[in-house]
């Protein structure tokens, strides 16, 4: 039997290295295009949903 994380932030993707911290995995992107690409790839891998927090930061969550 596996364990499933729900109602939690699975990953953070950002171009703002100085504005993000915490215990979730953080992925740093070099530009907005890489931010979107990484977020949507992680969304598929983690079976979550990508949400834009700001233009510089997206999170992957599972509801």
Q: What do these coordinates show?
A:
It is a single chain. The protein is of the alpha+beta class. The chain has one domain. Helix content is 24%, strand content 35%. It has one helix and four strands. The protein has one helix spanning 32-46, and strands spanning 8-14, 26-28, 49-54, 57-62. The chain has a four-stranded mixed β-sheet with strand order 2-1-4-3, covered by helices on one side. It is globular and about 40 Å long. The relative contact order is 0.31.
How are the SSEs ordered, and which strands pair?
Elements: E1 8-14, E2 26-28, H1 32-46, E3 49-54, E4 57-62
Parallel strand pairs: 1-2
Antiparallel strand pairs: 1-4, 3-4
As residue ranges, the low-confidence spans are none
- CA-based gyration radius: 11 Å
| Largest pleated sheet | 4 strands, mixed
- Average per-residue pLDDT, rounded, comes to 93
The assigned structural class equals alpha+beta
* DSSP strand count: 4
Order of helices and strands: EEHEE
Oligomer: single chain
Shape verdict? globular
Helix content: 10-25%
Strand content range: 25-35%
Strand order of the largest sheet: 2-1-4-3
Terminal CA distance reads 20 Å
The tally of domains stands at 1
Output the number of helix runs: 1
């Amino acid at each position: 039997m596996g364990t499933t994380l729900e109602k939690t932030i699975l990953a953070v993707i950002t171009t703002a290295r100085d504005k993000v911290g915490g215990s979730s995995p953080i992925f740093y992107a070099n530009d907005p295009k890489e931010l979107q690409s990484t977020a949507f790839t992680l969304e598929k891998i983690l079976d979550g949903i990508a949400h834009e927090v700001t233009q510089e930061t997206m999170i992957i969550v599972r509801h």
